[in-house]
């Protein structure tokens, strides 16, 4: 810790060698936004091709590369790193720690990401093209039948996994060891809680993903047959391994989002979070249940009926803790004094749309009905309601909420609200009709479709262009704030906000809490 | 024009109707399925059970949604700061919290009961009256009727929509992308068991109106069944991403009367016998070329290009194999190139078609070998 008053280094080396949690958080956030734009442009290509029946712009193989890269970039490049960035910025400030526990590792876990994604994007220019087997990369399409770029893809997944594991270990170490005196576990803000649990999920399942891709590598290059029936292996084994990672993964994505919403709603309701304890327990039970429901993605692979029943019942159970969370948020609003600044609008958008996604999740959990829903656009609608309106909306809310604290300037509320409404309308126009075409029989991941799906697909595409372009407004708003926003000087930017991060000066200085704060017992939480 | 106008209104009204959730299926009665917004109950008892289950859960969700969002919007309206309210300070209530943990639990049990019974119904494979083996190939389906007495009847079912419709140089037909050269034919009111597998990657055989979706997995045979109660043509698609032309491998099932089915089956068996005869014959160049073009367009053009220019597969025009030694060419056609997308077509095409397509490749697209392959050559090559 040597010199207590040094500021950031100058120039590029500041960013390359930094061990400062705020710098690293900032880099994560910008990187994830760049990936959001990249993954978004892939989506625009997909929606442009699907604007009308017939093949117009791309060929089917390239279309598959787009759906694959879109999924991979959004999940691993946009959503996950954005929440890691938020964790870096906020966790130390929320628990009264001077920095993350393992700052050098923190630097590494960020800096291995950009090369990995550069490499992944470069596969587009390789012979045979980029991976084209979907973000779920089922074998043997991703092994025996894959383009040579699959080997690079495997390498990238390993790097992303290493980055996530390092990030999670760091978060666990920070939360367990660096809380300010008096900050007991049950006083931690919910964002810290949800991230702590998420970090454990990550440490548990990223190695499983690494195992899956390693087995693929062995099958492709070293003559094993883990996933090839011809050699005594089992293609279904791949799916079990993948979803043992994959289902917890979706909760890795949504739990920090739950945390964000649990911070923001009380601030704009001017009322403490309802049911703090039950929020913590609900998060923990969701995390536990997420390990025993994976095969709900595999109802049609031909499991024995006992297996189907087990996974159906377990999946249905997740609705209980999820419901508890929704009820708690609404009770937090109940008889509060609500205002509707941009962060709150995005949280309310989250609340409505995530709940709809939860409903479709419950429908999908019903195995016999899933025989009809599975691999149709209904599933696409479901997971975009939970991942875009869930994770991305809450991330957007987080940026608006903490941006003034980060840079000491206020964003334009008018532009923020406009961003919200365009996003909200664009999002629903894109994804609501997908429920319809899915139920009516349109499979997912197809570059062209039968005529009866034409109108809803056109609607979807128009919605997607609207939602996509609204992000440019977001970018502009953020940059304009940083460059020339109205300065704010209150420590507590929002009158209803609670928590240690609002006790440091605005903008947050390069180093905060070099001497730990004393946590006031009356400040129970959030 | 009428259709177009209707389209546009649908497009304009869509969002409004969407929000109301009221777009009634009856408005689409004129052209049955356009802009359908719900799952078809289909033509099987299982399909009806699934549909009922789906609607039950849907309405439960709607009711819960109305309550939850009702409370939320009430709060948004009445508990806003601009109305001068002072915020309350309560932040827990054990009673309420227990209630909203326990009540949903019972709702879930209420859902689980019909779900379980429907699932058990679907898993009842007993008493099937006939078996069809369904095999997924990149990118077509093979249907094989397992006949206990008499020979099995087998054929491939390929997409019939021409490239010109897909690439927008011709008007799209009514069943664009949902039409095949040879549909699966099954009798009505008969419990048909499907044994589902795949030859290369994983596919999924899905026909919404028959309420069947089952993954076709190489090396495994999955079981499923249907019993259609109404004659008709039912269309579906492959539901599992299986590579480039995943979007272009539809499923079409003709459900016909038992009488018609028996006639169809007899005709198929006769046809198979005829092919056997043909295999012993010698064909002229013209006959081979004509037949070969048909086979090529159906089975090879997807990868090798309509004009032999290549694509996912190598170019046939000027190909060293197609302009080389005949045995080498037959070898690739019959046994494929292991580890590539070039499958072994020996088991997919009969010897007459194989002879024709090889001859065609050697003498089309500017290739000019002038030699012919006869069915007997194919037969001998297979024997080794
Ligand atoms: C009430 C809670 C939820 C339930 C019961 C649920 C249930 C399901 C089920 C059964 C499927 C499989 C559908 C199929 O493929 O046939 C599914 C798919 C999916 N869900 Fe959820 N879900 C819930 C919440 C979430 C959340 C919170 C997320 C992520 C933020 C999520 C993300 C996904 C994704 C990404 C898929 C599709 C994966 C793929 O095949 O590409 N779900 N969900
Ligand atoms: Cu899942
Ligand atoms: Cu497919």
UniProtKB/TrEMBL annotation, chain A:
<feature type="transmembrane region" description="Helical">
    <location>
        <begin position="250"/>
        <end position="268"/>
    </location>
</feature>
<comment type="similarity">
    <text>Belongs to the heme-copper respiratory oxidase family.</text>
</comment>
<feature type="transmembrane region" description="Helical">
    <location>
        <begin position="311"/>
        <end position="331"/>
    </location>
</feature>
<keyword id="KW-1003">Cell membrane</keyword>
<keyword id="KW-0249">Electron transport</keyword>
<keyword id="KW-0812">Transmembrane</keyword>
<keyword id="KW-1133">Transmembrane helix</keyword>
<feature type="transmembrane region" description="Helical">
    <location>
        <begin position="28"/>
        <end position="48"/>
    </location>
</feature>
<comment type="pathway">
    <text>Energy metabolism; oxidative phosphorylation.</text>
</comment>
<keyword id="KW-0813">Transport</keyword>
<dbReference type="GO" id="GO:0020037">
    <property type="term" value="F:heme binding"/>
</dbReference>
<dbReference type="GO" id="GO:0015990">
    <property type="term" value="P:electron transport coupled proton transport"/>
</dbReference>
<feature type="transmembrane region" description="Helical">
    <location>
        <begin position="462"/>
        <end position="483"/>
    </location>
</feature>
<dbReference type="InterPro" id="IPR036927">
    <property type="entry name" value="Cyt_c_oxase-like_su1_sf"/>
</dbReference>
<dbReference type="GO" id="GO:0009060">
    <property type="term" value="P:aerobic respiration"/>
</dbReference>
<feature type="transmembrane region" description="Helical">
    <location>
        <begin position="146"/>
        <end position="169"/>
    </location>
</feature>
<keyword id="KW-0479">Metal-binding</keyword>
<comment type="function">
    <text>Cytochrome c oxidase is the component of the respiratory chain that catalyzes the reduction of oxygen to water. Subunits 1-3 form the functional core of the enzyme complex. CO I is the catalytic subunit of the enzyme. Electrons originating in cytochrome c are transferred via the copper A center of subunit 2 and heme A of subunit 1 to the bimetallic center formed by heme A3 and copper B.</text>
</comment>
<dbReference type="GO" id="GO:0005886">
    <property type="term" value="C:plasma membrane"/>
</dbReference>
<feature type="transmembrane region" description="Helical">
    <location>
        <begin position="190"/>
        <end position="218"/>
    </location>
</feature>
<protein>
    <recommendedName>
        <fullName>Cytochrome c oxidase subunit 1</fullName>
        <ecNumber>7.1.1.9</ecNumber>
    </recommendedName>
</protein>
<dbReference type="GO" id="GO:0004129">
    <property type="term" value="F:cytochrome-c oxidase activity"/>
</dbReference>
UniProtKB/TrEMBL annotation, chain B:
<dbReference type="InterPro" id="IPR009056">
    <property type="entry name" value="Cyt_c-like_dom"/>
</dbReference>
<feature type="domain" description="Cytochrome oxidase subunit II transmembrane region profile">
    <location>
        <begin position="28"/>
        <end position="126"/>
    </location>
</feature>
<keyword id="KW-0813">Transport</keyword>
<dbReference type="Pfam" id="PF13442">
    <property type="entry name" value="Cytochrome_CBB3"/>
</dbReference>
<feature type="transmembrane region" description="Helical">
    <location>
        <begin position="98"/>
        <end position="120"/>
    </location>
</feature>
<keyword id="KW-0408">Iron</keyword>
<dbReference type="GO" id="GO:0005507">
    <property type="term" value="F:copper ion binding"/>
</dbReference>
<dbReference type="GO" id="GO:0005886">
    <property type="term" value="C:plasma membrane"/>
</dbReference>
<dbReference type="InterPro" id="IPR002429">
    <property type="entry name" value="CcO_II-like_C"/>
</dbReference>
<dbReference type="InterPro" id="IPR014222">
    <property type="entry name" value="Cyt_c_oxidase_su2"/>
</dbReference>
<feature type="domain" description="Cytochrome oxidase subunit II copper A binding">
    <location>
        <begin position="127"/>
        <end position="267"/>
    </location>
</feature>
<dbReference type="Pfam" id="PF02790">
    <property type="entry name" value="COX2_TM"/>
</dbReference>
<dbReference type="GO" id="GO:0016491">
    <property type="term" value="F:oxidoreductase activity"/>
</dbReference>
<keyword id="KW-0679">Respiratory chain</keyword>
<comment type="function">
    <text>Subunits I and II form the functional core of the enzyme complex. Electrons originating in cytochrome c are transferred via heme a and Cu(A) to the binuclear center formed by heme a3 and Cu(B).</text>
</comment>
<feature type="domain" description="Cytochrome c">
    <location>
        <begin position="287"/>
        <end position="365"/>
    </location>
</feature>
<dbReference type="InterPro" id="IPR011759">
    <property type="entry name" value="Cyt_c_oxidase_su2_TM_dom"/>
</dbReference>
<keyword id="KW-0349">Heme</keyword>
<dbReference type="InterPro" id="IPR045187">
    <property type="entry name" value="CcO_II"/>
</dbReference>
<keyword id="KW-0479">Metal-binding</keyword>
<dbReference type="GO" id="GO:0042773">
    <property type="term" value="P:ATP synthesis coupled electron transport"/>
</dbReference>
<dbReference type="InterPro" id="IPR001505">
    <property type="entry name" value="Copper_CuA"/>
</dbReference>
């Amino acid at each position: 810790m040597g010199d207590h008053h040094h500021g950031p280094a100058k120039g590029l080396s500041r960013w390359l060698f930094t061990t400062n949690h705020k710098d690293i958080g900032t880099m994560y956030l910008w990187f994830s936004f760049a990936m959001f734009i990249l993954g978004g442009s892939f989506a625009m290509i997909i929606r442009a091709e699907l604007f009308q029946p017939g093949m117009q712009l791309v060929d089917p193989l390239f279309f598959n590369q787009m759906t694959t890269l879109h999924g991979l970039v959004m999940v691993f490049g946009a959503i996950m790193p954005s929440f890691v960035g938020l964790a870096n910025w906020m966790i130390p400030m929320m628990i009264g720690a001077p920095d993350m526990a393992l700052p050098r590792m923190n630097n590494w876990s960020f800096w291995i990401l950009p090369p990995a994604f550069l490499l992944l994007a470069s596969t587009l220019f390789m012979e045979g093209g980029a991976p084209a087997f979907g973000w779920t990369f089922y074998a043997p399409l991703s092994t025996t039948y894959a383009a040579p770029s699959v080997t690079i893809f495997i390498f990238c997944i390993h790097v992303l996994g290493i980055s996530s594991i390092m990030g999670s270990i760091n978060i666990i170490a920070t939360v367990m060891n660096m809380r300010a005196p008096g900050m007991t576990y049950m006083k931690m803000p919910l964002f810290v809680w949800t991230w702590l649990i998420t970090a454990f999920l990550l440490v548990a399942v990223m190695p499983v993903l690494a195992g899956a891709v390693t087995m693929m590598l062995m099958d492709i290059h070293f003559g094993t047959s883990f996933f090839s029936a011809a050699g005594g292996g089992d293609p279904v084994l791949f799916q079990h391994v993948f979803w043992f990672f994959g289902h917890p993964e979706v909760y890795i994505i949504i739990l920090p989002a739950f945390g964000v919403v649990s911070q923001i709603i009380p601030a704009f309701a001017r009322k403490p979070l309802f049911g703090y304890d039950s929020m913590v327990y609900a998060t923990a039970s969701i995390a536990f249940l997420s390990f025993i429901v994976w095969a709900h993605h595999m109802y049609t692979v031909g499991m024995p009926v006992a297996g189907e029943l087990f996974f159906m019942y377990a999946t249905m159970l997740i609705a209980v803790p999820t419901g508890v969370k929704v009820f708690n948020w609404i009770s937090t609003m109940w008889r509060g004094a609500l205002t509707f600044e941009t962060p709150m609008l995005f949280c309310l958008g989250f609340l409505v749309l995530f709940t709809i996604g939860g409903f479709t999740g419950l429908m999908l959990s019903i195995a016999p009905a899933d025989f009809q829903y599975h691999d149709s656009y209904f599933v696409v609608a479901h997971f975009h309601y939970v991942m875009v309106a869930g994770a991305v909306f809450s991330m957007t809310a987080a940026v608006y909420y903490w941006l003034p604290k980060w840079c000491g300037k206020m964003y334009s509320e008018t532009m923020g609200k406009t961003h919200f409404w365009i996003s909200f309308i664009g999002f629903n126009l894109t994804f609501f009709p997908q429920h319809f075409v899915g139920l009516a029989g349109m499979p997912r991941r197809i570059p062209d479709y039968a005529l009866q799906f034409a109108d809803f697909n056109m609607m979807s595409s128009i919605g997607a262009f609207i939602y996509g372009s609204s992000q440019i407004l977001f970018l502009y708003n953020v940059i304009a704030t940083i460059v020339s926003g109205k300065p704010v000087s209150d420590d507590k930017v929002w009158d209803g906000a609670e928590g240690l991060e609002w006790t440091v000066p605005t903008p947050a200085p390069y180093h905060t809490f070099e001497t730990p704060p004393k946590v006031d017992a009356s400040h129970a939480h959030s | 024009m009428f259709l177009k106008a209707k389209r546009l209104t649908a497009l304009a009204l869509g969002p409004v109707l969407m929000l109301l959730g009221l777009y009634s299926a009856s408005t689409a009665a004129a052209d049955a399925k356009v802009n359908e917004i719900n799952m078809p109950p289909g033509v099987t008892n299982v399909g009806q059970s699934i549909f009922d289950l789906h609607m039950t859960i849907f309405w439960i969700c709607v009711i819960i949604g109305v309550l939850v969002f009702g409370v939320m919007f009430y709060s948004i309206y009445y508990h806003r700061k601009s109305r001068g309210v002072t915020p309350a300070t309560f932040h827990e209530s054990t009673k309420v919290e227990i209630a909203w943990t326990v009540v949903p639990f019972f709702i879930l049990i209420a859902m689980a009961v019909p779900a379980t019974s429907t699932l058990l119904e679907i898993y009842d494979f007993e008493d099937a009256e006939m078996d069809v083996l369904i095999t997924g190939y990149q990118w077509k389906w093979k249907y094989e009727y397992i006949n206990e007495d008499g020979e099995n009847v087998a054929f491939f079912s390929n997409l019939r929509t021409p490239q010109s419709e897909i690439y927008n140089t011709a008007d799209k037909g009514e069943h664009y992308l949902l039409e095949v050269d040879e549909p699966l034919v099954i009798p009505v009111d008969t419990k048909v068991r499907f044994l589902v597998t795949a030859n290369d990657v994983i596919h999924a055989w899905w026909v919404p109106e028959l309420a069947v979706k089952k993954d076709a997995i190489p090396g495994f045979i999955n079981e499923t069944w249907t019993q259609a109660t109404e004659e008709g043509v039912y269309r579906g698609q492959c539901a599992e991403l299986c590579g480039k032309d995943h979007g272009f491998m539809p499923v079409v099932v003709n459900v016909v009367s038992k009488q018609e089915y028996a006639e169809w089956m007899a005709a198929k068996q006769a046809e198979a016998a005829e092919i056997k005869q043909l295999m012993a014959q010698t064909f002229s160049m013209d006959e081979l070329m004509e037949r070969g073009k048909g086979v090529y367009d159906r089975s090879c053009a997807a990868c090798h290009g309509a004009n032999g220019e290549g694509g996912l597969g190598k170019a046939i025009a000027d190909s060293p194999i197609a302009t080389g030694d005949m045995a080498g060419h037959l070898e690739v056609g019959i046994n494929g190139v292991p580890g590539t997308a070039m499958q072994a077509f020996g088991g997919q095409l009969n010897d007459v078609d194989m002879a024709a397509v090889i001859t065609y490749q050697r003498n089309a697209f500017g290739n000019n070998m002038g030699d012919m392959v006869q069915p007997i050559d194919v037969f001998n090559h297979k024997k080794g």
